[in-house]
Each structure stands twice: as C-alpha cells, then as structure tokens.
Amino acid sequence: MPAETPCQAEACDLQACLGKNTYKPERCDQHVRNLYKCCQKMYDATEGKGESTACPMPNVVQRWMKDHPQK
C-alpha cells in the first residue's frame, strides 16, 4: 500500500473550505496557514528534498511563511 502523501489532509481541508466559501476565501486563511506550516515542516525534516503533490516548491513555502508571519 503506498504511503500517504505528506500534507494531503491539509490540502483537502483547504479545498473543502474554498468550496464552501466561494465568495469569501479569506475565511480559509487558517487552512492555508496549516498547509504551508505542514509543508515547511516536511521540507525542514528532509532538508528541502521532500516531495508532495500537496505542497508548493520549498522556496514558495519559505517566501509565503516570511510574508505571512504568525500574529
């Protein structure tokens, strides 16, 4: 049985939220943060060599995290 794709659950949660909030995607901001935090954790654990179809490239994740600091 193949291993689960890292961060797939977070990506699915985000997609479901966006589907429910078509006209108010800002309601899904926490889901976006959860996905990027998961991706960052995966990349940190694999020294940037991890792969997941649920995650953007490592440099995109790093830039997003820098541009959206936790409040």
UniProtKB/TrEMBL annotation:
Keyword Transport included in the entry's annotation: no
Cysteine-cysteine disulfides: C7-C38, C17-C28, C39-C55
Name this protein carries in UniProt: Cx9C motif-containing protein 4, mitochondrial
InterPro entries for this protein: CMC4, Cys_alpha_HP_mot_SF
Keyword Mitochondrion attributed: yes
Source organism: Crucibulum laeve
One GO cellular component term noted in the UniProt record for this chain: mitochondrial intermembrane space
Similarity comment: family membership: Belongs to the CMC4 family.
Pfam name, any one: CMC4
Record keywords: Disulfide bond, Mitochondrion
